[in-house]
Design brief:
The chain is α/β, with parallel strands linked by helices. The chain contains 16 helices and 15 strands. The protein is globular, with a radius of gyration of 22 Å.
């Protein structure tokens, strides 16, 4: 609770926390709109494939033109302005930059960037949760060995859920379930970038379709993003994935402790100490009143009669038995809250969540019957969606990580709903992401 004071001291000393941002997309732009106003923080550089577009983003985020006009990193550090470039190597070679935000969203690119940042001796805030679930456990281990911080991104739901879990455990509570809300129906697993518009127009007023990335929105609706985010939570907290993946039960914020309790207690969970995502829609498509589509939660167990009495006395959204109770956060503001991760990594040397083991995985699962010779199109595409699985199952069966299921050719026919294996695709084993993922599998399967 002291980060703003610590930042203020850095500002007073003329030593602001100097940040480099890779990727000025939606998450990056939301961070930028607040970073300019944060005392003690200086966004020294923005690295983007399209610098002109990044400068337009800065203008959209309220930056005065002169603040985005530094001609070099030297000028940026001297004037407090920002240097926009496509040269990541030059930024990483500058010792004045302390922390780098990876916000590209591409898993293979994210792994390469994170390795370069760690090698440069800088902290990395991994907005790119796709890269984190593909190889985050090994990236975090490499960062620790290098003496730098590897952190999940505060403001994104995985880090917020990790905070819920940490709160519960630090208070001595048994965590029954933790997770988030989303909009979900079973048929959404078959959505494609072409058919997703039918769903988007049900709850979004879209006047200009060119402003919408259908592949990105599709990954949120087809179950993929939920599997990715809950896998990041499992790997960071040690919570176990459910044996057959997420089930997305409908639940309001007031029903969490009733729905998300063990089956033997009348709930839906096959195991305790797990993750789940609740749907804002009933199975017939009606809206769940008081749903939690943008929020996060944790369900805890009161292990004594007195604890359960306190649950009731303090209205802890308990179930009818008083044994289980829930705490929730109604929304999240993604990049606008990212400053907490930046400050924590540099000033406290602490991550806001980081993978500590390889507990869960996200595997490519066929959306329809696929034919040998077809090219997979990855997250949010028309061929596969990402299903959460225990890491032990993924390793034992040789299942194909979703993060590597793009631009690869199928070698055999795959039935709808079938989880793909490494042997089902022709993959370039020389790629950095492939080699690093294989290295992680070997290192963590060996204990």
């Amino acid at each position: 609770m002291n980060l703003s004071n610590m930042l203020a001291h850095r500002a007073e000393a003329g030593r602001p926390v100097r940040v480099a941002l890779i990727g000025a997309g939606k998450f990056g732009s939301m961070y930028l709109t607040q970073a300019r106003l944060t005392v003690g923080v200086h966004v020294a550089a923005i690295v983007d494939l399209d610098p002109a577009r990044a400068r337009r983003t800065l203008a959209t985020c309220g930056w005065p033109s002169e603040q985005a006009a530094a001609a070099s990193l030297d000028e940026a550090c001297a004037s407090g302005a920002t240097f926009v470039t496509n040269d990541l190597a030059a930024v990483l070679s500058d010792g004045r930059v302390e922390v780098v935000i990876e916000a590209t969203g591409d898993p293979a690119v994210g792994i390469r960037h994170a390795l370069a940042v760690i090698e440069a001796g800088k902290h990395v805030v991994m907005v790119n949760v796709e890269a984190d679930v593909l190889a985050g456990p090994l990236l975090a281990r490499r960062a620790e060995q290098a003496g730098v911080v590897y952190s999940l991104a505060w403001g994104d739901q995985p880090a917020l859920i990790c905070e819920h879990v940490d709160w519960a455990r630090a208070c001595g509570f048994k965590v029954v379930c933790a997770g988030k809300g989303t909009r979900y129906l079973p048929t959404y697993h078959q959505l494609t970038p072409e058919t997703v518009w039918d769903v988007l127009t049900q709850y979004l007023h879209i006047t200009d379709r060119s402003l919408i990335n259908p592949k990105m929105f599709n990954s949120f609706l087809d179950g993929t993003k939920s599997g990715i985010e809950m896998t990041a939570v499992c790997n960071a907290t040690g919570l176990l994935p459910q044996p057959d993946g997420l089930s997305f039960p409908p639940a309001s914020r007031f029903e969490l402790s009733t729905v998300l309790r063990p089956k033997e207690a009348g709930g839906t969970l096959p195991i305790t100490g797990t993750t789940e995502v609740v749907s804002s829609l009933t199975r017939d498509g009606a809206d769940v009143p008081h749903h939690l589509a943008m929020g996060t939660f944790v369900v805890i167990e009161g292990e004594t009669d007195y604890a359960r009495q306190c649950f009731r006395e303090y209205h802890m959204l308990e179930d009818e038995t008083g044994r289980y109770a829930a705490l929730y956060r109604p929304t999240h503001m993604i990049g606008m809250e990212l400053g907490l991760s930046v400050a924590s990594a540099v000033l406290r040397k602490e991550p806001t969540g980081m993978p500590r083991g390889f507990v869960a995985d996200v595997v490519a699962t066929a959306k329809r019957n696929l034919k040998a010779g077809e090219m997979l199109d990855g997250e949010g595409g028309a061929t596969v969606w990402g299903k959460q699985q225990p890491a032990s199952v993924s390793l034992e069966r040789g299942l194909l990580p979703l993060g590597l299921a793009a631009h690869v050719k199928l070698l055999r026919d795959i039935a709808e709903g079938e989880m793909l294996r490494w042997d089902d695709v022709a993959i370039d084993t020389t790629q950095t992401a492939v080699r690093f993922r294989r290295e992680m599998e070997a290192e963590f399967s060996a204990g």
